[in-house]
Amino acid sequence: MASMLLTTMRSCHVSPSLAMRFGARSLSTTAQLQAQVQTKSKKTLARPGVKNIVLVEGVRTPFLLSGTTYADLMPHDLARAALQGLLNKTGVPRDAVDYIIYGTVIQEVKTSNVAREAALGAGFSDKIPAHTVTMACISSNQAMTSGAGLIAAGQCDAIVAGGVEFMSDVPIRHSRKMRKTMLALNKAKTVGQRLSLIGSIRMAHLAPELPAVAEFSTAETMGHSADRLAAAFGVSRLEQDEFALRSHTLAKKAQDGGLLEDVISFKVPGRDIVSKDNGIRPSSMEQMSKLKAAFVKPHGTVTAANSSFLTDGASAVLIMSEEKALAMGYKPKAYLRDFVYVSQDPKDQLLLGPTYGTPKVLERAGLTMNDIDVFEFHEAFAGQIMANLKAMDSDWFGQTYLGRKSKVGAPPMEKFNLWGGSLSLGHPFGATGCRLVTTVAHRLKKEGGQYGLVAACAAGGQGHAMVIEAYPQ
Amino acid sequence: HVSYELKDDVAVVRLHDPTAKVNTLSSQMQSDLKEVMGEIWSNKSVKSAVFISSKPGCFIAGADINMIQSCQSSEEAARLSQEGQKMFEQIEKSPIPIVAAIHGSCLGGGLEFAIACQYRIATRSKKTVLGTPEVMLGLLPGAGGTQRLPKMVGLPDAFDMMLTGRRIRADKAKKMGLVNQLVDPLGPGLKPAEERTIEYLEEIAVGVAKGISNKKVPLTKEKSLKEKLQDKLMDLAPVRKKIFKTVSEKAQNQSKGFYPAPAKIIECVQTGLEQGREAGYLAESENFGKLAMSPESKSLIGVYHGQMACRKNHFGSQRRKADGNGLAQVSIDKGLTTILKDTDVESISRGQEHIYTSLDNKVKRKFMTSFERDVIMSNLSVQLDYSGFESADMVIEAVVEDMDIKHQVLKEVEAVIPPHCIFATNTSALPVTEIAAASKRPEKVIGMHYFSPVDKMQLLEIVTTDKTSQDTIASAFSLGVKQGKTVIVVKDCPGFYTTRVCISLEEHTAIGHSVGLSLSIPLICDEVGLDVILHISEVGYGCCLSLHMSDTCSLYLVGRKSGKGFFLYEKGKNYKNDIYWFHRLISRVVNESLLCLQEGVLRNPVEGDIGAIFGFGYPPSIGGPFRFVDTFGAERLVSIMRKYEEVYGAPFTPCQLLLDHAKDPSKKFYK
Predict the structure, then answer these.
(1) Taking every annotated instance into account, which residue ranges of this chain make up the domain 3-hydroxyacyl-CoA dehydrogenase NAD binding (chain B) (predicted)?
(2) Domain residues for B658?
(3) How many CA atoms, within 13 angstroms, populate the side-chain half-sphere of residue A31?
């Protein structure tokens, strides 16, 4: 499988960044970005005694609607494609990586440690250990931060982290009763025993069991919870549709403008080369307003058009300690700085992770909202994003639930998810985290910012936020 | 009490009674409502209306009981019913569609109100319950309920609701067709969850109201073939007749003829279905009038008030942790961290399994999620030793009813618990004073008499000794209320209040059952162990025990402990409606109860009545021993007792308190 690489990472975007640095007007930046440049603090978040961890490169396969071109693959195929893309793009020697960590949510039972299966197939040395983590939609965030932890602890110097999700095929099981009978059949010794076990099978036992789309603890589906969350914050259908449309429009613009350079091309066996995300579909408000509520019927506001869709895809990043990266001759893209994980009520605040995570990580990093130049939030549902923005902008919520004196403050939209988001690019659960981090690094470079913030919500009422600092050019 | 505002062409009518905790259909509310509706109907620009309550957790909790109680004659009560019927008929025939937006309790008159509206939306909250509990107060749904409900949900469901008074949760109500649409409760957003939920409900209701007025939302749901068939079947006269017959028989069996309301409810429904609505309304209001004046209803309403009173803590409240199997269960699901300590592994395993199974049954019936069950179970730790007791706030001991063992446990526990920790002993009969005598700190020792099965029986009898401190009583009381119990506080004496009165009657329980005194005495005796009862009666005051009781004991048939007990003594004679036996039994119970008040064991008549009804199954239709004296007449009772006294002697000697009441008819236990 050949990956089509257009550029090597070391050669891109030097000029605009330099322009920013010297405060000169550049044709490629907008007036708005100029303003940011002037107010920006130049301090770095490096701390004495703390290792600098850098993002060397990040790639992803195109994110496709499930059931489309990837339909006949297996999860480790996608993960392998991402890993190979990373190898090709960075040229990192196949034995120079110390450890590989992958995140995934719905596991293919045959490849439950998908990190290892993918790494072996991608041509990495078989001497590199690999493990798989799971933390719902922030699984690859967890893969990255686990890696960062290994580097910080001095265990490793170079890590590959990534995530994969494959929704075109999910494990559908026999019913518990059927499984029990089948397992008992294995142990049955006589024909009589076997016959009586087979005789005990009823029609009802044959009904298959689909993987739960519902939160286990509350038995509520995520879409339903998102609808309630949007209602709780008074987010209207119109606001949601507008935000979804914005996401698709911006994604389309980014795709057309060649900004999504983390996307690698992938030759799918038996099919064409895939090199673009296929879920970006800017529609019109009229068309979106025609859709019926998908979860809360009949009066709900969350629809298919303002939710993220089921997606297949994989991502991978190469992270290293700064010395190692420099020693190997790399020019890192960004520093991975402070990060936090948060968790809250899985029923009424299932998707409020960003609201809880953002102020916490900013406080850790000693930054304020105003310091952040680039925001990349995971868009599970338009209603969820709007609810988070409203929660962050509410004094009452800040005081009552975040233990603050006043509100966190909502991120300004002109810095927010400017290249589209999960609503439009797609959301392969396990893979989204790496996409967010890579996008922040790329946007910081392109837009000339210094600090970026990643935030995401996840099933189980959990959340994650990370501060990323641009690498000095 | 009623205000409204216009949202476009929808009138949002808000119900809020500022003088009470809950909304009721008081006369003020009714007249305000009439006025507001008049205004809305005359305003041509209003195309639809929404009724919503501004009280959190309550739509309308029912009719105003005081209003019914203050009626002097059945005609007056019937008029109340007619007024309600008229008002709701106007609402039903409203020229503009009306949507009832229900969050919280929608009971009795409140439900009748809601079903008169054209459309109902309810929140899927645990607080939202719908029902017609009138029957529990000896009444019937008197504002058109008996006429509308069967049409709305079908005969079987309507009878189930009206005859049992069962509360129906939102999901079930939607399935039955009692409400048209459900709204999920919201979490906190830009304001607290409850506030936002009501606002959201209103937004949805306004949307639906607009939809109805411009014909986008259909008022009636297309019925399925099965439902159509069912309706057709119900319309057939013989089928209907059969239903009425079965329901009547069942109601007769269950009420044993002591409660007149069920029969009247059936009569009203039947009249309405067979002779039309006008006749139905007439039957409903007349029967309502009759029932409102019946002594049964008066008694039941009294019981209701008493029950409410016994849930108010007059001792102050404090937060405490508890320890003890059924006891553990009622504690952990209220969020109390609880240790269950027993002496051997089998017992604690059985205990834990018992609790798990009963919670798991709730999961199976969808009352809670498996997750909620697990969280509740996590509040429980089971163990064989006393570790963790050093940080307990309260220990409830529930060992076998044996004084030596109780003393031993008390000493063991006191050696490990902190100084502030309360030691409660769960005993149904052993004197608490004697148990406390072994304590280094008797002021912290209290009796908590739970009734078996603890998770079902709602009474808790708290037993205090002369030394028990106020603080200790307060803590035990607040724990009891937290456990969902109706609590009475009595002074220590052999058998306390409930067990003592029971024993006064012990030999005739089977007969009692037949004459309407279905006291659960044999159950209690079996539970306690007959040996303990014998112990009480030997040391007790004036509890005359018949010979066969001591015989039983000497035969080692020690109640449930030996697997055999009282029920062996039930013989097949028919005592039904035997007034001789009724008087003979009731006079003993009443006399013993009054004696308890006279001796200061009971604090007041209300607790006496509540203890009798929920403790040993005194019939609520005659409202408890004290209310019985008030209604039956003390003098009349004394004269009856004197007759029995001549034959059976001392046990039938009226106590001084009863004699005082007999002498002075103006003396009443209830004002």
Answers:
(1) 324-493
(2) 501-663
(3) 0
